[in-house]
Structure formats: structure tokens, C-alpha cells
């Protein structure tokens, strides 16, 4: 405020002013919290602004009147228990006020009392626990409440009681959501304060834990009431378990490092972590379920994908996570030896083959291998499938699993069986889902997998679906920077894509896959160089550390391929692919201008400074007029094309004016819309927003073209 700005030079007066402000702020908040106008939007916004001001003042003063503080806490918890803004303000205030070196700390309401007011409040259980009958409370409120409890436990460990475990487990969902991760950290804090979960060894969580606790309280503890291993395994959702296997968080640590500032795991991938189980919790759980004193339903353990998730953990980058997975597998193997079910001998042999292939202690397996093992294990329960016999035959022909090969690649890919298409589809599924990191790329490159699939792409035996799978494999490999560069260098991938684009017509789904692949390759290879190019150029003559740039010939190759792709653009493309195309083309042109400027600054000789010809721009504008359905632009372009006789565009106009085949519009019997095609009726607003974004990118692209005055020769050049 203006008064504080004037008093910046006088520390004493500034502190007195802020103390008076804080006192007034607290009194205003107490009056507002106890009032009944919180339902009004204006009153709510004003109150939240004042809570932010309260946090700012408290962070600079670290003290408050004890009487006002007690009224603030009691009034706030009474009337704003489910307001996340108040809970966050209370969290920040406790952080500042209850420091050991703070002299005011002893005069304030004690932390055990604050904790009791939190946990014994009438809204504590309805806020924290999720009921199937009622709507799920706001996650922001639950997170703020768990944060507040964690802070009080950290600053005053004496508040921990074993009776809290039942409530915390009832609120826990065993997922990687931020809320569940915070609850797991809170449970770990309880254990670090000499409270063990040993009585909850066979852990239930979620609504099942709440129901079990209610039963124990009403009927008392008895042996038959203890949940069995089967009850626990039935809580696991098979589909979510499989999704967790396919998107296993390889960088998740089993135990959070003590010196880490951020304890919450976050992943940059597009998958929603809320839909994945937390392997840190499940591996601890499985280690308890497979103890010798329990009888495990080994078939149910396999059918629930618990075995698959344990195997997937062998691809983790965390040694402790892998060690926990190896421990669970060893314990499960002991249980399996004494089990009796039809597939027992096959499962034992699979685990033997895997164990014989592990040469070093706590060895990390490539994710592709762990996915193969997990899918092979689940295939044991499907004797009706064609792959059941093939996988068993493959396993019986090996004493150990070679960890430096893609298992069964040549046998399944070059199979002479009548069902060879099924085998190839199964193999493609392993490759596209199992391509997660550089190690997976190196495994496939070492065995010549990319040479084979790139050659197979142009084979008459490769149908549209297999072509899209190959593009997906390449795109997944291109997400790693080193792999993206090597796949361009070693396999001439841009030339391969250019050969595909020379086809007269590409299916929309295939075209979408090519655009996504090119966009991923460019973004990954560019990395942070694109961000650096936005700033001032540092490649001055005599510079000690010249700016690292992509090779100019590589940028030109990307541009050549994208310009060739322009003639395949069509309105049926989805808005995401159109945006990716224009964004990639704009980024390439801007980056090329940066490289050319850097070369000029270093006095290097360059040729072909002009990258977009007039013909390229006319083709681009023609395609844009079709995308935007701009009739006026189409007529203007037609006049210019006919005037200068641009052959390629004249041919495009002839193709465009061909009569439409009636068979395409036969109602239900017409061609079905493919997944890559746009669905304009689904969300016209999103389509319009995407076109507006593309329009801005197109304007930026056209700034890199300069018309050649009186240059008619280009118009007569062959297309």
C-alpha cells in the first residue's frame, strides 16, 4: 500500500504500521467469518482477498495477538471448515507462528488443541471420506485439510494416534493423484513417529476400509472379520491395473528422498495420474499379502494384473522400487510352488525363464521386456486365444529370456501360420505400447526392428491399421531427444516420409499419423534451442560460447518434407493435426531465420536464403481456402493460377472440380468416418478456435516469403 511505500526507510514505523494493519485485518476476518453472507459472490471474493492480505502481513511480522488468533482459529473452523481458502491461510499462518524460535509461540493456542479441533469437528469425516451415496467433496478442500494435518503432525509429532489410521485409509484411493500421494506421505509421517500399521497389515482402503472399521467397532474384533487376501485383490480394478502397467511411472521413487523439496510425483506425459495406481503403496501391500503365513490365491493374483504390475516395476529407475518388486516376485514364487490350479506349471516355467535371464543383482529390465512378460503371463489364462499356443511354444523353446532381444520378434513377425496377422498384431501392440524410453529404442535398434518395420510399411501385406501402428511406434521412439536424432540419422526417416507423401492420395488417419510424427520429431530435436532462439543471438564473432544450433541441412530437410505435405491438407483433418502442422511449419521457418542470421554474424557463406517459393505459397493459400471455406480467396487464387499457368495448382483445381461419386453419400452404407478425421458437429467452437489459431500461424508463415517482382519463370516450372 502507499503508506508502506512511504515508510520503507523507517523499519520501526513500518513494523508498527503493519502490526496495526494485521490487527484490523484479523478483526475484520473474525467478523466476516462469523457473518452469514458467505454465499454472496462479492462477499466471498472480498473475504478471500483479505485472507491473502492476512498471509502477506503475517509472513513479514511472524506474530499476532494471542486473543485475536484464538478467535480467528475457532471462528474459522466453525464457519469455514470446508473453505479451502481459509484452510490454506490457516496453514500458512501456522507455518510462521509456531516456529520454535518465535517468542509468541508459547502464548498461542497449542497445536494439539488445533489438531483436536480439526479431527473432532463434525465435518471432518464428511469432508475427508468419500461416500457412494453423497457427492464427492471438493478435492481442493480435502487437499488443504490433509496439508494442514501434515503440517501439525510435522511440527508436533505427539498428536499422532493409531486411531487416525482408519480414517486416513478410508480417505485413501491408492492412486497417483496429488491427494492420495499426500495421504500416503501423512501415513508415512505417522510411522516415522513410532506408530506402526502392523495391525492393518492386510490393508483395506477407500470405502471398503470404512465399512470394515464400522463392523469392527460394532461387533468387536474376531478372526473371521479379518479381510482375506482375496478380499484385498478384489478391490483392484483390472482395467486400471492394466493402464498402470502400460503407463508405469518409471521415475517414481519407492521412498521419497529426505532432501527433496518437492515430494509429490508429477509426470510430464499426457496420461492422467489420477487414473493410475500408486506402485509405492501396492508393492508394500503385495509384500504383506505374499508372506508365508498367508495363503494367496495365486490365480487371482495373476488375473487381477497384480503380477503384471510387479513385473513392470522391474523397469523402474529407482533401485529400491526394483528391489521391492524382486522381493514380491520371490515371495509369490514360493506361494506358487504350493498352489494347485490348472495353469500353475506354465506360470512357474514363465517365472523360471525370466529368472534364468537375470544375470546381475537388482537388474533393471527394459520396459518392452517387462510388458512382454506381463502380457505373456496374462495370456496363460486365455487358452482359447491363438497366441496362447504360440507364446507357450516360444517359452518352451527357451531356457532363459535373452534380455538383449525383443522376445519372439522374428518368430511372430515372419510366422507362416494361417493366423500370422494375429501374431503380427500382438507383436505390434508390444512394440507401440512398450516404446517408453531410450533403452527401449536401443533394444529395438540393436535387433534391426526399425529396418524391418520401415520396409514392411510399403509392403502390399501391410494394411492401413498396421501402417498407423508403425507410425505410432516411430512417434513413441521420437519422444526421446537422442533417439529422435538417431532415427533421423540412421534410418533417413525424413526421406522415408517423403516417399510416402509422393503417393497420389493418403487416407486421413494415415496423414494424421504422419503430421503427428513430424511434429514430434521436430519438437524433440529442437528441444530448448527454440527457446534460446527467441532471445538475442549470442553467436557474435569471437564469442567464447557460441549458441548451439541444429544443422542447417536438417532444418531444410524438415521444411522440404512439410512443404511437400502441404498438398495433402484437407478439411477432414482433425483440428489438432492442423494446428500441429501450422505450428511446426511456423517454428521451422522462424528457427531457420535464426540460423541464417547466426551464420551471417559469423561471416559464414550460405546459399538458398529464400525457402518459400511463390508456388509453395500459392499451394498453401489454396489449401487454406479449402480449410476455411473462403470462397472469395478461392476465386482470387483461381484467377492468379490461371493467369500464370502454375501447372501443379491447375491440376489441383481440376481435381477439385471433378464430380463427386454418388456412392460416397449413401447414408448408412457410405464410408465411415475414421478416427483421424475431424468431427465438426461434435464441437464447432473448438474447431473455430483451432482455425483462428491456425490463421495467426499462417500470417506468421507468410512473413517468411517475399514476392519476386516480375519473376514469371517459376510459374512455368514443372510441378
From TrEMBL:
GO terms for cellular component: nucleolus. Coiled coil: none annotated. Residues 657-687 are annotated as: Disordered. Residues 307-496 form the URB1 C-terminal domain. It holds the Pfam family NopRA1. InterPro entries: ARM-type_fold, URB1, URB1_C. Signal peptide: none annotated. GO terms for biological process: maturation of 5.8S rRNA from tricistronic rRNA transcript (SSU-rRNA, 5.8S rRNA, LSU-rRNA); maturation of LSU-rRNA from tricistronic rRNA transcript (SSU-rRNA, 5.8S rRNA, LSU-rRNA). This is Nucleolar pre-ribosomal-associated protein 1. It comes from Neovison vison (American mink).
